[in-house]
Structure formats: structure tokens, C-alpha cells
Amino acid sequence: MEKILITGLNGFVAKHFLDYLEDNHIRAQVLGIDIQPACMYNGFKYIDFHYACIDLLQQKEIEKILFQFQPEYVLHLASYSSVAFSWKNPILSFQNNVNIFLNLVEVVREYSLKTRILSIGSSEEYGNVNEADIPLKETAGLNPLSPYAVARVSQEMLSSLYAKSYNQDIVMTRSFNHIGPGQSDVFVVSSFVRRILEAKMSGMKELQLPVGNIDIIRDFLDVRDVVSAYYKLLHKGKKGEIYNVCSGCAVRLSEIIMFISEALDIRVIPSVDDALVRPNDNMLIVGDNSKLCNDTDWHPHYCLKNSISDIIEYWKIKLN
Amino acid sequence: MEKILITGLNGFVAKHFLDYLEDNHIRAQVLGIDIQPACMYNGFKYIDFHYACIDLLQQKEIEKILFQFQPEYVLHLASYSSVAFSWKNPILSFQNNVNIFLNLVEVVREYSLKTRILSIGSSEEYGNVNEADIPLKETAGLNPLSPYAVARVSQEMLSSLYAKSYNQDIVMTRSFNHIGPGQSDVFVVSSFVRRILEAKMSGMKELQLPVGNIDIIRDFLDVRDVVSAYYKLLHKGKKGEIYNVCSGCAVRLSEIIMFISEALDIRVIPSVDDALVRPNDNMLIVGDNSKLCNDTDWHPHYCLKNSISDIIEYWKIKLN
After folding, report:
1. Which residues on adjacent β-strands are paired with residue A174?
2. Where are the alpha helices (DSSP H) in A166-242?
3. Before A147, cis peptide (omega within 30)?
4. How close is the nearest chain B Cα to the Cα of A155, in Å?
5. Which chain B residues have a beta carbon less than 8 Å from that of A148?
6. How far apart are CA A114 and CA A73, in angstroms?
7. What is the CATH number of the domain that holds A256?
8. Is residue A106 domain-shared with residue A210, that is, in the same domain?
9. Which of A21, A23, B95, B96 could form a disulfide with B80 if both were Cys (CB 3.0 to 4.6 A apart)?
């Protein structure tokens, strides 16, 4: 029975990772940790689930829990992953990305634990890219454009260093934009769905939607495909290697609005609100997932329209 | 009268920077800060010197001091700058490089202070380099090979970001190896001089000297040339730009031993002690200083033999 530690248990991705283990009848001993008390987690049929409340900035707490549990795998999801937040609070963003990661890998190193860590990075690390480099391979240059992106590059450099110099078993991702049911409306697609659905439910036929820059192009991957990639990378990823976790498909934010508008049969008229436009944002981010596919036999299963339809269903339940 | 804040006051470089101001009759109001109580600093003729004991990890303390003093220039020297230390204490090294820098730039941003910061980086950022790239220009790729080097790259990425996105006035260096009188014998050249001098003073004609890898090639710059570069960069460096601070000359560590041996007239037989060999060390680091020379009219004044001779004099006094 494999032993998996998941940090950032209360987050969007962790919940789907647990669902993935259950749906695939994976018998695992799972310890979920989070700085907040656990959300409701019970009724598991296949996994043996435990929970602990831990502040990853406190190294002593991590030491205790890792030493007791001795995980084979750590899925390190804990992160302040909002770019917008990082512009307002660069210090907190940095601490809750880089410093917590460093605390974690240091404990694994000090106790010589036989633990593989999946270090989650971000497509934001690429920064402003040349169109000629699209779709982005893992070999493309990094030019981070936000405090969050800098923190992710720092974490990745530390990961590479620990893998090379201390021979620590770390696999890295650069994960592109996630979408899926359950995501907070701090994130753009979930926010669009919620706001358009609320308009629809209130009987409106047309909505003026304040937006940021909706000409930007992104690579959205359904969270359920993200977690299957993470499970496969924990088991089949190559030590010290970096993997894009992405769909490989380019989608403009305005198209997403159009899909939602069609699915809900409501006219949406986007209007740009300067306060929602981020400084220095990337125009174009699309990844190449061939390394991930080749090394782990992973393939995505959700197309964008399926995802949006599931996100609409999620918000319908949530708003009722 | 210009106002200069110096962090890391008790360090090797700060002391020489104060000497530079005095030697050049620069009338400046200087506030030196350090986490330790101040070493003896008095008898200044040209500068109006003040001191405060500050922990840069405590943002409130930095806020207070910056807001009160309102410096035009910040020379940010505070750092845990030993690569060897960073291998043993990656977390402390990271905190006392990146986090303290971030605290500093955040205060300047929040209070919209009209302050230029000189962010000190390191040649270690380049990492393992191709011989074809020697001498290294600032455009060369970065491939950091130690926790210290990763911390310096992170600091530099944050500096670039703050300069570009927040329009903050930051100039960056990649400073190569320093040598000079007063440097701690934690650092290689000072350590060689001290040990060889001690052998000479005890009457030995020949010394078996335990060493690490002395085939590595470095670019050593006298600290007195370093501080003149820093002063010029504070005044003439271009905002958001990175400058190599280096001599441009390639010197093998074994040659340094030979110079010292000749100057002291004692035979030195180096013997490699594996415990002194660093994991993953760079073989070859030599920089190109033309950008610094062109933009600031800086030129180095100390040749290697002068520096070594002055370091020997320093240790003679210190050991007596």
C-alpha cells in the first residue's frame, strides 16, 4: 500500500487528486496536511485517509510529520498560487511558495527519507514568450513577470539543485492554467461562469461583463487531467526532470466567454475594466506536453466544452 | 549632502566603502545598519556617520529606519555570502539573502521612497559555464549550482521585476570574487595567506597545505576596486540593468598559492583534502567588465600582486 503525503489538502487540486485515487481504486495510505482545519473528508472506500493541521513555515512541525509518516511520495500542492495576490503581497507570496518548499526538501534531506517529491511549478515561469517558441517546450527560456512567477522559478531552481547535488528524488512540473468544477471564482474561468450564470438565473437576457484583458491566450487543462498527470509523474516521471502539464491547446479568454454564453443562452457583452488588467501580463502561453505524454503515458481526457459544462453544473448547485 | 544607507555594515565590503568615501573626500550622510552591534566606527572627517542595529528579517524595523532616514541611495551589502555555508544551511542562506532583500524593496515600494538601491549579486549565478562564453557577459545564461547561487538569482529576478513592473530604481551587480585586506579567512585567498604566513612566522621552510580544488579558475577583484564600482553604480548605473563587477583576469587558485609562497619565501606543497572540495563547483569563472567601464567610467586600480601584498601586511598585523 503506497504512502502519499499531500500538502495543501484544502485546495482545489488536492480534492480532485483524492477523487482520482478513489475513482481508480488505488489503495493508498494518504496523509493530507493543510494550515487550515480539514474540510469534510470521509467516506473513502479505497484510500486510508488521515489529516493533520500543519504550518509549513514551521520546520519543526514538518519534521515531526514527515518523520512519523515516512511517505514514499509527496505531492506538494501547498502554495499561494494567485498572480494577482502576489502583486499585492510579494513577501507573503514568496514565503508561501519558496520558503515552505525549502523547509520541506530540507527535512527530507536531513533525515535521508526515501521520498519522491513532486514540485509544482507554473507556466507563469516562462513569462513573456516569443511566438516562435509556441508551443513552449521545457527547454524554452524563463523570464518571470510577476512575484509569483519569480517564486516558482526559485522553487524550480532549488528543486534542480537538490536533485543534482544532494541526489534527492524530485520531479518538477510547470503546470498551465487549471479549470474545473470546484475552482474558486478568484480564477478567471470560474469567475466568468459564476457571473454569467448569476445573470442568467436572475432572468437577464444580456449581461455587460466587466473583464480584464480577454485577448490573452492560454492553455487550459481540466483539473481532472492535471491530477492524473501528477499521479503518473509521481510514479513514472524522471528524477530531476521538468514536465509541462498542459493541454497543448490555445484558447483566447474571449472564446471562453463565448462558450459560456452559448451554453447558457445569454448574450454577454464584455467591457474592459482597467482595474482588472494586470500589469505586465503575458499575451500568449501555450505548452507542449509531449515530454509528459512520452515519459508517463499520460493523455488528457477532458475537452474544453466538457469542462465548461461541468463548471456550470458545479456553480448551479453551489448557487442554489 | 547625499544620504546613503549601507546594510551589512560590519562586513568586509562596507568597511572599505566607508574608507572610499573618506579617501575621496565625499561629504555624505551615512547610516550603517547591521544585525550585530557596530564595530568601532569613528574619526570620520568627511562623512556624517550614524549607526543602527536592525534585523532585516523584521520588516517593521526596516520600515521605521527607512522612513526616518529617507536615503537617496541604499547599498545593500547584508548577505550570508558563503557558498560553503549555504550547502550546510540552505534555509538560513535563502532567508538572509532573498527574504531580507524583498523586505527592503517592499518598504521602498510601499512608501514610494525616492531611493536607488544597489542589489548585489554574484558571479556564482552563472554556474557551470561554457569556455566559449568566457569572459562572461551579462547576457550569458544562468545555471546556479549552490543554494547561495539560487538565492542570488532569485534576488536578481525580483530586482528586475521591481524595476520593470513597479518602476523602482534598482541597479544590479554580479560581483565576482573579492580579495583584500580585512577579509575573513573563511574565504579562500585570505585563508591561504593566513595559513602560509603562520607557517613562515613559526620558522617553517616548507608547508604541506591542505586545499580543496585549486585547479579552479576565478576572477578576483580587490575590494577597493569593488567599492569604487559600487559608488559609481549608485550614481551612474542604469536603472534595471545588471553589471558584472570583476577584473576580467583569469587566475587559477594554484597561482595564488604560488604568489603568496614567493612573496613570503616559503615552499608550499598543496595536498587535496576531499573534505574541502565543494560539491558541484564551477571550474571556470571569468567576467567581462566592459559594460561597467562604459556606463560608469570605472576602472580597476589594484593588480593581484598588490592585493596579495596588502593582504599579507593585514595578516602580519592581525597575527601579532
Report:
1. A121, A244
2. 188-201, 223-236
3. no
4. 9
5. none
6. 9
7. 3.90.25.10
8. no
9. B96
* Residue of chain A nearest B278, judged by CA positions: A165
In a domain, B210, yes or no: no
**Does residue A159 sit in helix, strand or coil?**
helix
Domain with B174, as residue range(s), is 2-179+220-246
Q: Which long-range contacts (CB under 8 A, 24 or more apart) does B33-42 make?
A: B33/B5, B33/B6, B33/B7, B33/B9, B33/B65, B33/B78, B34/B7, B34/B8, B34/B9, B34/B10, B34/B78, B35/B78, B36/B10, B38/B9, B38/B10, B39/B9, B39/B10, B39/B15, B41/B9
Q: Number of A:B CB contacts under 8 A?
A: 69
> Which residues of chain B have a Cβ shorter than 8 Å from any chain A Cβ?
59, 87, 90-91, 94-95, 98-99, 102-103, 106, 144-147, 150, 153-154, 157-158, 161, 164-165, 279-280
Per-10-residue mean pLDDT for chain A, 320 residues long? 96 96 97 87 90 93 94 96 88 92 95 96 91 95 92 96 94 97 93 97 95 94 98 98 97 97 97 81 90 98 96 96
Same domain, A7 and A143: yes
Calpha distance B168→B163 (Å, rounded): 4
Is B165 in contact with A158 (Cβ distance < 8 A)? no
What is Dmax (Cα atoms) for chain A? 61
DSSP B278: P
Q: Would you state the pLDDT for residue B84?
A: 82
Is residue B279 situated within a structural domain?
no
Q: Categorise residue B252: left if φ over 0, alpha if ψ from -120 to 50, beta otherwise.
A: beta
> Which residues are within 8 A (CB) of B6 and not within 5 positions of it... i.e. 6 or more apart?
B14, B17, B18, B30, B31, B32, B33, B74, B75, B77
- pTM here? 0.90
Chain B residue numbers touching A98 (CB-CB < 8 A) = 94, 98, 154
pLDDT digits (tens, 9 = 90+) for B101-152: 999 999 999 999 999 999 999 999 998 888 899 999 999 999 998 999 999 9
The answer to whether position B194 is within a domain reads no
Residues A194, A242: one domain?
Answer: no
- Amino acid, res. B268: V
**Which chain A residues have a beta carbon less than 8 Å from that of B99?**
91, 94-95, 99
Cα gap A189→B196, rounded to integer Å = 67
CATH number of residue B141's parent domain: 3.40.50.720
Residue whose grid cell is 526515501: A114
Q: Which phi and psi angles does B170 have, rounded to 5°?
A: -125, 135
Residue B239 lies in a domain: yes
Nearest 5 degrees, angle CA B195-CA B201-CA B203? 110
Query: What kind and span of H or E run contains A66?
Result: helix A59-69
Q: How far apart are CA A268 and CA A280, in angstroms?
A: 27
Q: How many residues appear in chain B?
A: 320
Q: Does A280 lie in the same domain as A224?
A: no
- Report the gap between the CA of A191 and the closest CA in chain B (Å): 26
How many domains does the structure of chain B reveal?
1
Residue-level pLDDT at B74:
98
Q: What are phi and psi of A179, to 5 degrees?
A: -140, 165
Residues of chain A neighbouring B59 (CB-CB closer than 8 A)? 91
Question: Do A81 and A136 reside in the same domain of the chain?
Answer: yes
Model ipTM value: 0.87
